[in-house]
Amino acid sequence: MARSNLDLILAELQQSESNITHFDEGWSQGRSAFGGLSTAFAVTAMNKRVDSDMPLRSLMVSFIAPIPPGEIKVETHIQRQGKNVTQLSADIWSGGECCLQAMGVYGRARASINVNPTREFQPMPRESGIPFSENTHLAPAFVGYFDGGWAGGGIPFSGSENHKLGLWAKHQIDMNAFPAESLVTIADIPPPVLLSRFKKPPVPSSSLTWSLEFIKPPGEFTIDWFYLEMEMEAAADGYTQQSGLIYSEDGTLCALSRQCMVYFGPAPTGS
């Protein structure tokens, strides 16, 4: 049975001996599942293969084909298991087709040098942004499962040439049972910053590849709200590259994001 609550979707996968779960169309983005959700499937399945004291440190994803609503299955494989680091792969299957491939790197904490470069953290206050709920035309339906809003910069379909986009986001439900998946889904909410150069939707777009590096284990972040700062670094030939910083509400850097995206439509100057 297709589900809409994220915790129930992931719990079904977590408890399934065959790594199967179901989701409904509310989590779709165009023809496919929201990339943060499909990546969370891979994370949940890989988490089942490692010890709890070996948290996720790095994630690399290739989005191969659309994942329609309904049943999905995840196949995992341990590529190498060492004393401190384990590397796994996960393939997501839908309709007999491999639709996503992910690599996860898990590692135990070790004694090391700690380097924390000073970064300016002065985001627009949450209450002064544009709430997701008031601007549904700017975002796909899955954003309705989150609270938050656009917090300045290259807001989608604003006709802006700003290379940066800020936004606040939190889950509407308690995701403490799935800390890594919670952060993964939030980290993939931002659309291509390039969409800010268009004046009206729709302009179909999707991620091709995504890497996410966790500065600290996801389980250490107990604050619900996260601030995301994305920057478009280049765009050409229908592809765009952007990087991002994901912060907790108190300004702690949680993760680093990088994506290669594709968009389909006229050049922004013709929008």
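the 2nd protein, sequnce then structure:
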Amino acid sequence: MPDEKGAPPQIQVQSLNDYLEVMSKAVFQSGMSWQVVNAKWPDTNEAFHGFEIGRVAALTQEELDELAQDKRVIRNRRKLAAIAHNAQRIIELDAEHGCFIDYLRSHGDFYDVVKDLKKQFKFLGDTGSYFFLYVVGEPVPPHDEWMCAQERAKRR
């Protein structure tokens, strides 16, 4: 839920599950109102077993099909599959870099991180990446500055 300035609350990351949950929220918010996603979030969290990363990464096609029929979640099959894929990528990048935060910090700057997040993860665009990085406490440019850069990029 955003604060009075509209910013979502930041978290103290305790585990890979936290990264997955925040990233999954960004995935579900892609093309949707954050209010809709927030309203469904407690049930979504339950349906995804608290975003326990190993369990989500191991979801089978049958389990994804079941989730696609589950009224507790936003039933977009492609987004549901993306969350399982993203869980797998977080685990892989965590192993490859020694820890996931080292992966995030292995890029030159915010824009390089975003570029790689968009390449590595499904349904994670510019806005979702900004949201993800902000919520997990990674450095992001001030929102108004970032919005201006987004507008300039659209005009090109």
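The CA atoms of residues 40 and 73 lie 7 Å apart. The chain has a mean pLDDT of 94.
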